[in-house]
Amino acid sequence: MSMRKTRKAEHIDLAIQYNEQTKSEPWSDVRLVHHSLPELAYEQVDLSTLIANRNWPVPLYINAMTGGIQEAAHINRSLAEVAKKHGLAIAVGSQSAALSDPKVSDTYRIVREIMEDGVVLANVGANVAVDDALRAVDMLKADYLQLHLNFPQEIVMPEGDRDFRGVAQNIQRVVDASPVPVIVKEVGFGMSMEVYQSLADAGVRVVDVSGRGGTNFAWVESRRRKDKTSLFDDWGQTTAISLLEGQAFLERMQFLGSGGIRTALDMAKAISLGASAIGVAGPVLRLLYRGGKEAVETQVMTWLNGLRSVMLALGATSMRELQSVPVVVTGETRDWAELRGID
Ligand code: FNR
User: Fold this and answer.
1) Residue nearest to atom 14 of ligand 1 (CA)
2) Is the pTM value of this prediction over 0.95?
3) Is 69 in the pocket of ligand 1 (CB under 6 A)?
4) Residue 300 CB less than 6 A away from ligand 1
5) What is the C-alpha separation between 335 and 341, in angstroms, rounded?
6) For residue 301, how many other CB atoms are within 10 A of its CB?
7) Using a 6 Å cutoff on CB, does residue 188 contact ligand 1?
8) Predicted ipTM?
């Protein structure tokens, strides 16, 4: 097995372990205001959402995880089957393995085969060469291209990148060349208004904040080397804070909420802070390994029905209405927002 293959298999095992042992960061600092007179019926609640002008039937997607090894093909196939059945979008894991070794591209392509005309997101690192970014999109006939930013993870890996110069400029080149909308995403460390500004300047219109609070890749990487802790175990902005940091950009950018989202209530809270759709990664992987495809499917239905129920309790019939319900932010999250000058 090559180094990359071993690493991928270990990522899967450790991410499952992490999601089994560690509770996600609570969303208790964010409270929605109950509405006793919602004046609407369950059937009126519409979950569809527009992402860069394309309609998604539900505001939920399975976020980027894997590809490139046989085990990944099985994961991608099973998750795509659930996504297809319930109208979710789905991202593949980083396609760099297939860009350097086309023989493994089937482990990613399986997702497009199963999704047929459903929404599929390609995924590469933000420092990718423009040609490779285009090949990644073409490989999947992807509807969007995710560019990931994972610098703490690289730093923790001895074999990881150490030179992060020129990334914003590279993103701009990819945005200019890409035939599909580009989504810049974190991998669990969140983002800030300074980063949104740079991304807006680079022409990016959709950002996946992927904040702290869920699967933690600094933890995964350090445990892979049997270290007990890493400098970045508690690093970054939570998903709630990352969305608050984006408030001044809501006219120009769309935000996708991911990182530590575990319940329908978390989903509703993230949407009320401005997210247009919600991504989940680690928990679906854990469910697939522990309970099979059926367990993932049951969870997806629980999330979607739960989201409808919360919307009913808030009197919100659409994503747009849910994005503008009153929300109360307390505790450390509020302190952060105040100190950063966020209204
Ligand atoms: C990831 N994630 C990820 N992200 C990315 O952009 N490219 C990738 O290749 C991977 N690989 C990957 C593997 C595994 C096993 C996991 C669990 C996650 C990060 C993922 O998309 C997401 O941003 C974080 O996991 C946070 O979301 P959750 O897990 O808290 O829902």
Assistant:
1) 65
2) yes
3) no
4) no
5) 10
6) 13
7) yes
8) 0.99
